[in-house]
Amino acid sequence: MIALGLLSHSPAVAQVESGVGTPVAGNSSAAYFFISKPGEVTMSVNLWGMVRFPGRYEVPISTDLVQLISFAGGPLADANMSSVRVSRSERRQDQIRKVDYTLDLDRISKLDNEALVLRTGDTVYIEPIAFKWSDAFGILTTLAVVVTAVASVIAVSNY
């Protein structure tokens, strides 16, 4: 009984819908954003990965991929925009199958507008950049410090 009382007063860790595009605190670990005007036809899409506010979005059916990413606060600095994956279920004859598309949003001007169209149930995933030179510099600096420390210990122990 005491544990239930403590849980009910714990701080919220997620966001859920409250009006047009306004997230509020909730008790779920998922985020849900409702971005439309009253009476507007909407679709649900998921946005995962390297954006400011990942989660499930209820957006107008006219929303394209760039607008969805913008609703989510834009890509983070470490986002790999050259390999944005869109996963969707497509019905072909009597079968439903999952299809993945990879789009290079770094070269958005070369993309056909049709490639940016979203459909109900799409899941968009923006991966982090796999390797950054700043990471390599940090690793090399740390390695140099460790090697210097080990060399100093060896030099002192030889005296």
Report how far apart the termini are. Answer: 66 Å
Shape: elongated
Report the order of strands and helices: HEEEEEHEEEH
Counting helices, strands and paired strands, the structural category is alpha/beta
| CATH architecture field of the largest domain | Roll
Uncertain stretches of 5 or more adjacent residues: 1-22, 24-28
Strand order of the largest sheet: 3-5-4-8-6-7
Q: Structurally, how many domains make up the residues?
A: 2
How many helix segments? 3
* Beta-strand fraction estimate: 25-35%
Q: What level of helicity do the residues show?
A: 10-25%
What is the number of E strands? Answer: 8
Mean pLDDT: 80
What radius of gyration results from the CA coordinates? Answer: 23 Å
Which homologous superfamily in CATH is the superfamily of the largest domain?
Outer membrane lipoprotein wza domain like
What is the CATH topology classification name of the largest domain? Answer: Outer membrane lipoprotein wza fold like
User: Main sheet?
Assistant: 6 strands, mixed
Name the CATH class of the largest domain.
Answer: Alpha Beta
